[in-house]
Amino acid sequence: MSRSEAEQVNELSAEIAAEVLEACRAGAPEAAAALGRALDAELELTVGEPEEFDLARWGQKAHVAGLVVFFQVGGTGALVALAEQSGLLPDWLPDPDPTGRSKLDTLAQELGAVLLPERFFPDGFSAGWVENLAAAVDRGQPAPSAVAVPLALAAQDGRQADCTLIWPLQRPTRVLASSTAAESTADGEQGQAAGGGGQSGKAQSLSLGALPEYARSLLRIKVPVVVTLARKRQPLGRILELGPGSIIQFDKACEELLELDVAGRPVATGEAVKVGDKFGLRISSIVLPGERFRPVKPRSGSEGQAG
Question: For residues 279 and 291, what is the distance between their CA atoms, to the nearest angstrom?
């Protein structure tokens, strides 16, 4: 397998429609529960058949405000769009407080875990309000071969709504950007191309999608991520006595935060959460790297020398 082929293994494409459909159907109850927790409603979700995505046709009824949940997988992405006119979106959504923001972040993480095949677990995800769903999808640049899966939602009080899962997107991180910001980013990229990579007078986007390809390739390097429940030192003899049914008691309290290590270095602490039927960690704080100081000594023979 060539290098380019290896990179494409972990990116979304139209060819995985059957896998996505299987994941959606298997994860429909969990996706409905996740949407229900975020939108404060009891919901059921029915998965339709995959179809070729036509932005022009879909956009005829999507020039409305609504909720967008997007997932990034490598250099590609996917999104779920739900229109405001569905009547299922809460009033706080356009301007969420910290609790609402947390609900949206959790929703994005949960949907990414259950609507996509397990081997395409998102590298990044987010959710938010947009004034125009069609424009938001257009900013994400659906691939010419993009696919859509209709997801029908039904509430216990009789309300019904259609949302859509769309992939692959070529610029997924631009979905939630305003149209002005997207235009500024595009202008900046054009200015760099014309000026040989020089800086333009406009602020440059810091999103992952705006990074050059060589930089994005570095971000796809896999490193071990470990969540530590607790640590304890015991004599080797006690370890040799362990067997099925043995219990090791730790001094750490159940409510204490868990530690997240990346490549053997502590980077964050957080609390355990349930993501679908899997275990997750909600980050509560980032561990700053330790500072190291070295004394500055004058070079030998330099003291007392003048001019």
Answer: 33
